[in-house]
Specification:
The two termini are 61 Å apart. The protein has 806 residues and is of the alpha+beta class. Among the domains are: 99 residues, 3-Layer(aba) Sandwich (Rossmann fold), CATH 3.40.50; 74 residues, 2-Layer Sandwich (Dna Ligase, domain 1); 113 residues, D-amino Acid Aminotransferase, Chain A, domain 1, CATH 3.30.470; 121 residues, Aldehyde Oxidoreductase, domain 3; 96 residues, Rossmann fold (3-Layer(aba) Sandwich). It is built from 23 helices and 32 strands. The longest helix is centred in the middle third of the chain and has 19 residues. It is elongated. The strands form 7 sheets. Strands 13-12-9-10-11-14-18-16 form an 8-stranded antiparallel sheet. Strands 27, 28, 29, 30, 31 and 32 form a 6-stranded antiparallel sheet that branches. Strands 3-2-1-4 form a 4-stranded parallel sheet, with helices on both faces. Strand 12 and strand 13 form a beta hairpin.
């Protein structure tokens, strides 16, 4: 980008990048030839325009100042010629920086007075300057006092903030109480970041009149330039901007009185050098101030002023901040008349369609079009939020001409928002009042938008996803199982990060922290390898239920399947119902329960509600009644679990690994076969806990694991695979799972169990056989991610909770 050489020796400190819609400001500053030092929490989209970064949380003023001084110490050749911010949140911080570095600008004392709407009105009242009658609301107890001392209609608003967020008109005491509850219950920094300075409320009398924006360049206490724009009426009771007209069409004497009023107030405030966005109303009795924004006007203001008056407010902002003299700019006839209209919707929802006719760019009267949302994004309008989609600016030779052009242009901009409906994937809800369930509706829309964005993502864009890794962490390792649980999460996270995914680990051993991430982490998809909650394996299904409740897409099976497969007794009943071959079995919940005498020894006694082979030892195989009683006592009394008793099947064990969820994407991976014939005499042919998690060399050295099996007829492999696949579908497994099958000496297969959440560390069975199928570990993980996305793209949310799934 070619730079203007007149500013090549000028260094400007910019406080906060703001959102990407402010890109045009940094592009202009860069083109001017300035050296830009950016104070920001992190490096972001603004990197191409920034020469140096100072990384600090701008909400922490002391920390930010400390970071600035550290930067100057490390870069002694750098000297700031000025400091600016165009982001409302950081006006106060910028004023502190101006004070600390003795730069040109607004002092912190003045900035704090002007930004605090209550203090500003008090300031005006004490100096007999015009201001609405007002009252600070310290709590609900002040509402009756406000109704008595002020005249309806009233406006309730936060004393800080911008964009008219939570500014509401009320017409009665009943509405006053209702509105106060709504604002107090929903007011947050998350909704409106400029509220970080405080969440206090005030009430003031509604001022009827023509609302205007006055953009002012003030230097050495003198107005060097000003521009007045008309703001057309908003849809009350809220105050979201609608249409902005420049130049103002108020009578000239009204415009003169407005600028004189603004100039007097700024003089009495002590503002000497600044770029000001002043909001006011012209009433029947004269001008009344509403807000003094100590920054350049936002959104379409810059382009509007440049197109109408030929004045570049960004250049003037830099000249003021650097103390460069500006001559008074006299306004002649406007170059054109301009109308800007915000692109709005009537109800909150998810943006489902955008159709901007290509012909629009060929219209000579179109000055600016900004569309800040993409398909699948949420849009929150009152009472859930205070957003609009963007704006469209057009020009004309006069106001009527501009109005005609705007009407024609708006017909070329089409968009649809699908509203929420709890009975379908998206739609609308009913309210008892104008604010009913606003916070609930907001969360529903935001979460639904996450589902909608997932439905629209392409395979090529996978690595743009923010992936949450739900698992269990054990910083101080407690045992082999805990080691495995920690390692699998770490390996998945490291692998995904290596290829460009943004990841966040969600530790369900710390449930409050996990839920906080789910609520605020802005995660696109969760890779669920969690097996415990608060260190309890019995709660393994619950994280998936949380993901459903927060409407966050996730990999793997749903909570119903995870819970079902933890109960080996229920699984046995279901398999038996569907005629899936499984060893003959019985169960006991107490020592008084009798085990069927139709079962033939040897038997295996298992804990019925545990995984990871916990409770499985060589003694789990029993050959007589006495051993059976002892093992039942161990499981029921010591492990405090029901006992599953099966006929022991002597033979090879097959692990059948399956990927997919739908009929068209199911894939049986190469089988894994375990042969036990080389185990020493006295050891039963099983995988006890010591073999799986303690690396017992007797088992490790003597169990022959074949991947793929050798010397096994294709017919047997096919039969084992088909039975496993039926089991996978019957139990409604999603994305991946592993079925354990025993084959007796006559090649009869018997399903032992299904693990819908098997460990998938890089050395485990599933990734190992996936590698045989040609998948690297990262390809294996991305296959699972892709399968999960496909489920959400092809089915409505929560389809797995519907009763007709099986």
């Amino acid at each position: 980008m070619k730079k203007n050489h007149s500013f090549l020796q000028t260094t400007l400190l910019v406080v906060n990048t703001g959102s990407p819609k402010k890109r045009f400001i940094l592009q202009k500053l860069n083109k001017m030839g300035l050296t830009i030092v950016m104070l920001s929490k992190e490096k972001n989209w603004a990197t191409p325009y920034v020469d140096h970064w100072i990384l600090a949380d701008t909400n922490n003023h002391a920390g930010s100042l400390q970071a600035i001084f550290a930067f100057l110490k490390q870069h002694p050749q750098v000297r700031f010629d000025g400091a600016v911010t165009y982001w409302e949140d950081d006006v106060l911080l910028c004023s502190k920086i101006v004070d600390e570095l003795s730069l040109t600008g607004i002092s912190y004392t003045v900035a704090n007075l002007a930004r605090n709407k209550y203090l500003f009105r008090e300031f005006c009242r004490q100096r007999e300057l015009p201001a609405p009658k007002h009252l600070l609301l310290n709590g609900k107890s002040d509402l009756d006092l406000a109704a008595e001392s002020l005249t309806f209609p009233l406006v309730i608003k936060p004393i800080y903030g911008s964009s008219s967020a939570f500014v509401v008109k009320v017409n009665s005491l009943e509405e006053l109480h209702e509105t106060y509850d709504y604002i107090a219950g929903n007011l947050s920094v998350e909704t409106e970041s400029a509220l970080s300075s405080g969440l206090s409320l005030m009430a003031e009398e509604y001022i009827d009149g023509d609302e205007v924006d006055i953009d002012i360049i003030l230097q050495n206490g003198k107005v060097k330039f000003y521009s007045i724009a008309d703001n057309y009426k908003t849809t009350e009771p809220f105050f979201i901007e609608t249409t902005h007209a420049l130049p103002s069409h108020l009578p000239q004497d009204n415009q003169r009185s407005l600028i004189e009023m603004a100039e007097e107030i700024l003089e009495q405030l002590g503002v000497q050098n600044a770029c000001i966005h002043f909001e006011a109303k012209m009433t029947k009795t004269g001008p009344v101030p509403l807000e003094v924004n100590l920054r350049i006007g936002g959104d379409e203001v810059y382009a509007s002023i440049k197109n109408v008056w030929g004045v570049d407010m960004i250049e003037l902002l830099v000249l003021v901040a650097t103390g460069t003299f500006i001559k008074v700019i006299h306004k002649d006839e406007p170059k054109k008349h301009l109308l800007s209209q915000t692109l709005q919707v009537t109800e909150s929802g998810v943006l489902s369609k955008v159709d901007i006719d290509p012909e629009l760019k060929n219209k000579p009267y179109v000055e600016d079009l900004y569309f800040g949302k993409e398909i699948g994004d949420p849009i929150l309008v009152p009472p859930e939020g205070f957003e609009y989609l963007g704006w469209l600016s057009v020009s004309g030779d006069n106001l009527l001409d501009a109005q005609d052009n705007l009407q024609e242009a708006m017909e070329l901009v089409k968009y649809d928002v699908v509203k929420y409906d709890p009975a379908s994937s998206i739609g609308k809800t009913k309210r008892r009042s104008r604010f009913g369930a606003a916070s609930l509706q907001k969360n529903i829309v935001l979460n639904q938008a996450r589902i909608e964005s997932i439905r629209r993502i392409s395979k090529s864009d996978l690595r743009q996803l923010h992936i949450g890794i739900a698992g269990n962490s054990y910083p101080k390792i407690e045992g082999q199982v805990e080691t495995e649980l920690s390692q699998v999460s770490q390996k998945i996270q490291a692998t995904l990060q290596e290829v460009g995914y943004k990841t966040t680990f969600i530790d369900f051993n710390n449930l409050p922290a996990a839920l906080k991430i789910l609520e605020h982490g802005k995660i696109d998809l969760i890779f669920n390898v969690c097996e415990r909650v608060n260190n309890s394996s019995l709660l393994e299904p619950h994280p998936a239920a949380f993901f459903d409740a927060f409407q966050i897409p996730y990999t793997g099976s749903n909570p119903f399947t995870l819970a079902l497969c933890m109960d080996k007794i229920k699984v046995k009943k279901l398999l038996q119902f569907h005629n899936i071959p499984t060893p003959k079995w019985d169960y006991a919940y107490s020592l008084e329960d009798e085990i069927s005498d139709e079962l033939d020894f040897p038997l295996i006694v298992k804990p019925a509600q545990s995984d990871n082979s916990i409770g499985i030892t060589n003694e789990s195989i029993v050959t007589n009644e006495k051993e059976l009683e002892a093992q039942l006592k161990y499981v029921i009394t010591s492990l405090k679990q029901p006992a599953l008793v099966e006929e022991f099947i002597e033979g090879d064990e097959y692990d059948v690994s399956i990927l997919g969820s739908e009929q068209d994407d199911l894939q049986v991976l190469p089988l894994s076969r375990s042969i036990f014939t080389h185990l020493p005499k006295g050891l039963w042919h099983i995988y006890p806990f010591s073999a799986k998690y303690e690396n017992d060399p007797i088992y490790k050295d003597n169990i022959d694991v074949q991947r793929p099996p050798r010397g096994v007829e294709a017919k047997l492999q096919s039969l084992v695979s088909e039975i496993a696949l039926d089991t996978y579908n019957i139990l409604d497994c999603h994305d991946y799972g592993r079925i354990e099958v025993r084959v007796d000496k006559h090649d009869n297969p018997y399903v032992l169990e299904l693990n819908p959440n098997p460990s998938i560390n890089i050395r485990d069975c599933l990734p190992a056989v996936a590698q045989l199928a040609g998948m690297s570990y990262v390809e294996f993980l991305e296959t699972i991610i892709g399968l999960a996305l496909k489920r959400y793209q092809n089915r409505p949310a929560y389809y797995h909770l519907q009763p007709n799934t099986l």
